[in-house]
C-alpha cells in the first residue's frame, strides 16, 4: 500500500479507541464536561447497557451557539491554551478530544443553550459528520445524547460485555463521580428505572448511603490527615466490614477518579493484621496535593496518573487510613444513632426484587461486583423461579394491573371489581408459599449472599449456635469467622442480594419465638419481600399479581395481615348510587 495521510474520520476513530473504550468511559467524559461547565445537577440516562443510548443532561453553562460545532472538533477546548497550563489545571477535561472522539463512533445529538443567550442549538452528528443543525428553544445547559455507540466500528462492538456488565460499570462511574462531587446532584436511570440518586448535600456520607446502602455506610470511619503537603480525607471501613474484592476502594486525586494499584495497595496495607488474605475494605479517599506534584496527562482517559514522589503518596495514604481505623473507634454511623448518617435518616438499601421479571435491573446497583464470569452469573441469579407456577390452581381471577399508589399498594381490576393489593404482604405470601413447598419437596434453591462478616454479642452468638441445625434446615449456611464473628455463606434464593448483616438480624429477631422455625421462615420472607415505599414498574407488579393469583391462601400474609381489599362491582355501584 502506498503511504497516505489518514482521513480525519479514520484518525478520529482510531483515537476514539483510546478515549472511548466502553459506554462507561463516555459517561465519564460527559460527566466531566458537565462538571467543568459548573453543573449542579447531572442526569444520566442509559439504555441497553449504554450501547444503545447514553444521555447526559446538565444545568451547566451550556455552549455558545457560535461554538457548538467547534466543541466537536479535534483538540478543541476552552480549558487550556498552552502546555504550561497543564501543570495547574483546574478542570477535569483539557485534551479537547472527548466530544470529537465520541461523535466519530456514534450518533450524537447535542442540545445546548449558553446561559446568556436566548436561543439554544440542536446539532446532530453521525459518525463524525454534522447532519443537521437548528436553532431551538432549550433550558440553559446541555443535553448530550449518544446513540448506537460503535455502530461504525464493528470490531469495538464485539468487545462490549453483556449489558448487565456495562450497566454496572456505568453505575460505578456515576457513583464515583458523585462521591467526588457530593455537592452536585446526580441521578442515574438505566433502562427506564432510577437506580441511583445522590442528594447533592455536599456530604460524602450521604453519597455513600445512596451508593452502597446504610449497612455498609454505618461501618465507615472518617479519614482526615495532612502530612508533607498531602491531604487525605474521606471515609474508610472499620475492620468489621470487608468485601472480597477491591471494587469499593475508591481513590480520587484532586477531584479526579483515578486507578492506581500502588495506592490501592497502600489502603489494603493499612488493614494488615485486621483483615485476612482476600479481604478488602470499603474506602473512599480524597487525596489533595499541589497540581505540580501529579501528572494527569499520562493517558487519554486521565484515570492513570503519575506522581513526582510516589513513596510520599503511598505512606501518606497508608498512614491516614491506619490512623482512622486504629484511633477513633466508633464508626460514624453510631455517632448519631444507628442507621443514620450525619444526622440524616438514611433510606434502607433496597434489596433486589425477585418478582419473576426477566432481566429487570436491580434497583440496588450498589452491588457492583468485579468484572468476570462470576459477576455475570450473579446478575442473573434472581431470574424467576416457579412461584405461582402456571400449573398451580387459580385462587384469584385474572387481574389486570392498573397502577401503584403511594409506592405501596397495587391497584388491579378483575371481572368482579377492583382490588387494592398491599405489595409487601402479597409478596411475603408468595415467597412464603414458595419457600414452604421447596422445603417440603427438598428442592430448596440457595444463593451466595453478599460478602461481609458480622460481629455479634456473646448472647447472640450463643443463640445462633444453638439454632444451627434449624438454620441449616432452612437453607442458611453460616460460617464462624473469628470470635463472635459470622458470615452467612448461602441462603434461600429469595435472599439474593442481601448481606450477612441483614439476614442475621432477621434470624436473631425471630429465634426466640415459641415456634422459631415458623417465625424465622416468616421473618425471612418479610425481609426478602418488596417493601412499602418501593416503586415498582408495571412488569414487576404484573409478575407479582400473576403469582398471587395462583397462590393458595392469597388473602392473607404469612403473618395474618390482609394482602388485598376487594371492592366488588356491586359494592361500587351501591356506593356511587347511594343505595
Ligand atoms: P475538553 O473537555 O478536554 O475540553 P471535550 O471534547 O470534552 O474536551 O469538550 C470540548 C469543549 O466543549 C470543552 O472544552 C467545552 O468548552 C465544551 N463542552 C463540552 N461539553 C460541555 C458541556 N456539557 N457544557 C458546556 N460546555 C461543554
Ligand atoms: Mg471533556
Task: Report on the architecture of this protein.
The protein is built from 18 helices and 25 strands. By secondary structure, it is α+β, with helices and mostly antiparallel strands. The strands form six sheets. It has an eight-stranded mixed sheet. Helix 1 crosses helix 4 (98-104) and helix 12 (423-441) packs across helix 16. Adenosine-5'-diphosphate binds next to helix 2 and helix 4. Residues 29, 33-34, 37, 58, 60-63, 71, 76-79, 93-100, 142 line the site of adenosine-5'-diphosphate (ADP).
Bound molecules: adenosine-5'-diphosphate, magnesium ion
Unreliable stretches: 329-354, 356-383
Number of H- or I-type helical stretches: 18
Question: What kind of sheet is the major sheet?
Answer: 8 strands, mixed
- Measure the end-to-end span: 92 Å
**What's the gyration radius in Å?**
27 Å
What do the pLDDT scores average to?
Answer: 84
Total strands: the figure is 25
What's the overall geometry? globular
Strand content: 15-25%
The percent range for helix content is 25-40%
Helix-and-strand structural type: alpha+beta
Strand order of the largest sheet: 5-4-3-6-2-1-7-8
Amino acid at each position: 500500500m502506498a503511504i497516505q495521510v489518514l482521513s480525519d474520520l479514520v484518525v478520529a476513530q482510531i483515537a476514539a479507541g483510546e478515549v472511548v473504550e466502553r459506554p462507561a468511559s463516555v459517561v465519564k467524559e460527559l460527566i466531566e464536561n458537565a462538571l467543568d461547565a459548573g453543573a449542579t445537577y447531572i442526569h444520566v440516562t442509559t439504555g441497553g447497557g449504554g450501547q444503545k443510548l447514553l444521555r447526559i443532561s446538565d444545568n451547566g453553562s451550556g455552549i455558545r451557539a457560535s461554538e457548538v460545532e467547534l466543541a466537536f472538533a479535534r483538540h478543541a477546548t476552552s480549558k487550556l491554551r498552552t502546555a504550561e497550563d497543564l501543570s495547574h489545571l483546574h478542570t477535569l477535561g483539557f485534551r479537547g478530544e472527548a466530544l470529537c472522539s465520541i461523535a466519530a463512533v456514534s450518533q450524537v445529538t447535542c442540545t445546548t443553550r449558553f446561559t446568556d443567550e436566548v436561543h439554544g442549538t440542536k446539532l446532530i452528528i453521525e459518525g463524525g459528520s454534522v447532519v443537521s443543525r437548528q436553532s431551538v428553544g432549550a433550558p440553559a445547559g446541555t443535553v448530550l445524547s449518544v446513540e448506537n455507540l460503535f455502530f461504525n466500528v464493528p470490531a469495538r462492538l464485539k468487545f462490549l460485555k453483556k449489558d448487565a456488565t456495562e450497566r454496572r460499570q456505568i453505575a460505578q462511574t456515576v457513583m464515583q463521580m458523585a462521591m467526588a462531587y457530593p455537592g452536585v446532584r446526580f441521578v442515574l436511570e438505566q433502562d427506564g428505572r432510577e437506580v441511583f440518586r445522590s442528594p447533592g448535600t455536599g456530604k460524602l456520607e450521604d453519597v455513600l448511603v445512596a451508593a452502597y446502602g446504610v449497612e455498609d455506610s454505618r461501618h465507615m470511619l472518617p479519614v482526615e490527615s495532612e502530612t508533607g503537603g498531602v491531604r487525605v480525607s474521606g471515609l474508610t471501613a472499620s475492620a468489621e466490614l470487608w468485601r472480597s474484592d477491591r471494587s469499593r476502594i475508591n481513590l480520587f486525586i484532586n477531584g479526579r477518579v483515578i486507578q492506581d494499584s500502588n495506592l490501592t495497595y497502600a489502603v489494603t496495607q493499612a488493614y494488615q493484621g485486621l483483615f485476612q488474605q482476600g479481604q478488602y475494605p470499603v474506602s473512599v479517599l480524597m487525596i489533595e496535593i499541589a497540581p505540580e506534584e501529579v501528572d494527569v496527562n499520562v493517558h487519554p482517559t486521565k484515570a492513570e496518573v503519575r506522581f513526582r514522589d510516589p513513596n510520599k503518596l503511598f505512606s501518606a495514604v497508608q498512614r491516614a487510613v491506619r490512623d482512622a481505623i486504629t484511633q477513633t473507634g466508633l464508626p460514624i454511623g453510631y455517632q448519631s444513632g444507628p442507621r443514620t448518617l450525619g444526622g440524616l435518616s438514611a433510606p434502607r438499601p433496597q434489596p433486589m426484587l425477585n418478582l419473576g421479571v426477566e432481566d429487570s435491573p436491580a434497583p440496588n446497583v450498589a452491588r457492583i461486583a468485579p468484572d468476570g464470569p462470576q459477576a455475570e452469573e450473579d446478575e442473573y441469579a434472581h431470574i424467576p423461579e416457579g412461584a405461582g407456577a402456571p400449573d398451580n390452581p387459580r385462587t384469584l381471577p385474572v387481574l389486570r394491573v392498573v397502577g401503584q399508589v403511594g409506592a405501596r399498594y397495587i391497584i388491579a381490576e378483575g371481572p368482579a371489581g377492583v382490588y387494592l393489593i398491599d405489595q409487601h404482604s402479597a409478596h411475603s405470601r408468595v415467597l412464603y408459599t414458595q419457600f414452604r413447598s421447596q422445603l417440603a419437596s427438598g428442592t430448596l434453591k440457595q444463593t451466595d449472599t453478599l460478602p461481609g462478616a458480622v460481629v455479634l454479642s456473646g448472647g447472640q452468638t450463643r443463640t445462633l449456635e444453638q439454632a444451627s441445625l434449624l438454620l441449616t434446615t432452612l437453607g442458611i449456611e453460616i460460617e464462624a469467622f473469628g470470635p463472635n464473628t459470622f458470615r452467612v455463606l448461602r441462603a434461600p434464593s429469595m435472599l439474593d442480594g442481601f448481606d450477612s448483616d441483614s439476614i442475621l438480624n432477621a434470624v436473631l429477631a425471630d429465634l426466640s419465638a415459641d415456634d422459631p422455625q415458623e417465625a424465622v421462615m416468616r421473618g425471612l420472607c418479610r425481609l426478602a419481600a418488596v417493601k412499602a415505599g418501593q416503586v415498582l414498574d408495571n412488569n414487576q407488579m404484573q409478575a407479582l399479581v400473576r403469582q398471587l393469583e395462583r397462590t393458595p391462601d392469597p388473602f392473607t400474609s404469612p403473618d395474618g395481615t390482609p394482602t388485598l381489599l376487594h371492592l366488588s362491582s356491586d359494592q361500587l355501584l351501591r356506593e356511587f348510587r347511594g343505595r
